[in-house]
Design goal:
about 160 residues; alpha/beta; Rossmann fold; five-stranded parallel sheet; 5 helices; ATP binding; Archaeal_FAD_synthase; Phosphopantetheine adenylyltransferase; nucleotidyltransferase
Length: about 160
């Protein structure tokens, strides 16, 4: 199958995997031949998360397992990122970036940084928000909060 882009990038913390992550990753596999996933380092995640995320090694293993289910035949590379941009600002091979509505401004910043470096901007694909049955936006933070509620811990 011929894909629209040879190299697609996306990034995130990928702490508690959920259907929003599946949508983000599946979108990347629908448009790109090779997928580069930037996974935040533990130290970088601690600068913006209000809770302690799972260790990098656990998040990476979970992400690899999920990608093997979504697109087992696809070439996927993983890179640990220590800032909001990762290799997206300097890798000239990258042609497209997939982002959520929440992270779309960061994708635009990345393209601005690429322009400053004389690189072509990437095409930006923004996925819509995924909501639970109550209309709440799904996120790892939201899921963690729900699971930590006292009523969630009752048998």
């Amino acid at each position: 199958m011929k894909y629209k882009f040879r190299n697609v990038v996306l990034g995130g913390t990928f702490d508690t995997l959920h259907s929003g992550h599946v949508k983000l990753l599946a979108t990347a596999t629908l448009i790109g031949d090779r997928i580069l996933i930037g996974l935040t380092s533990d130290s970088f995640a601690s600068t913006y998360k209000q809770y302690k995320v799972r260790p990098f090694s656990v998040r990476l293993a979970n992400l690899r397992n999920l990608m093997s289910l979504i697109a087992p035949e696809r070439e996927v590379a993983y890179v640990e990122i220590h800032d909001p941009y990762g290799p997206a600002v300097f890798d000239p091979r990258l042609e497209a970036i997939v982002a959520s509505i929440e992270t779309a401004p960061r994708a635009l910043q990345i393209n601005d940084e690429r322009a400053k470096r004389g690189l072509r901007p990437m095409e930006v694909f923004i996925i819509s928000t995924v909501r639970d049955g109550y209309g709440h936006t799904l996120s790892s933070t939201y899921i963690r909060r729900v699971l930590e509620r006292p009523e969630s811990k009752q048998s």
